[in-house]
Amino acid sequence: MAPALVHVVDDDPAMRDSVAFLLDTAGFDVRLYAAGTILLERLARPVRGCVLTDIRMPGLDGLALFRCLRSAGHTHPVVMMTGHGDVPLAVEAMKLGACDFIEKPFDGEALLQALHGALERGGQNGMDPSPDPALHPTLHPSLQDFVRRLATLSERERQVLDHLVAGGTSKEIGRRLGISPRTVEIYRAKVMAKTRAGTLQELVRWAVLAGLA
Question: Domain Response regulatory, which positions (predicted)?
């Protein structure tokens, strides 16, 4: 069986080399591209593998690349690499159909998990985005669990969650809610604990799938 193919798109040569080394060591077949336009020129059919792309790049950025791939009929699952403060862009990408996003700097295991998950789903999350598990019993069990945990949040915790998913920083959220950034951090910790999200990335992913973003 051929190794899984990952198309890596990033304008930073050091990042490309670092990711290539990690993925090659993990047994992936890796193709590197310095720009989304190069990927679009070289992609062959039939479609194989997945795309790992930076979301902020000069010229054709990650979101525009995703749209071009879909317009051209390519159905590769796509994982976005994002920088600090790019949560709103990641949410937009997932709404368009991207499988996942991962925040830089990331550790190798987190990246591998994101790619394995994307390849297993084949570009489809397979989950009904409606947030009401009682009305939609076919929801993925993990998403059902997440939606049930949302019901345990207080009104203030839910407000903080909504602002986190919208990409707000602790200072911004505090200003909007009339509380201190430190208090926002306390509420954020409670939200993470109650929803059992290990990272902000995971929290945002489930929130998007549950139709909260």
Answer: 5-119
- Is pLDDT larger for residue 44 or for residue 127? 44
Six token digits for residue 58: 């000069």
Domain at 5-121, CATH homologous superfamily: Response regulator (3.40.50.2300)
CATH 3.40.50.2300 domain span(s) along the chain: 5-121
Residue range 116-160, pLDDT digits in tens? 888 887 644 433 334 444 434 344 566 788 889 999 999 999 999
Contacts of 18 (CB under 8 A, 6+ apart): none
In the block, tokens 């992936």 appear at 28
pLDDT mean over 4-11 = 94
Q: Is 119 helix (H, G, I), strand (E, B) or coil?
A: helix
Q: Which amino acid is at 186?
A: I
Determine how many CB atoms are found less than 10 A away from the CB of residue 15. 15
Contact call for residues 150 and 165 (beta carbons, < 8 A): no
pLDDT of 21 higher than 70? yes
Considering only residues 179 and 86, tell me which one the structure prediction assigns the higher pLDDT. Answer: 179
CATH 1.10.10.10 positions along the chain are: 141-209
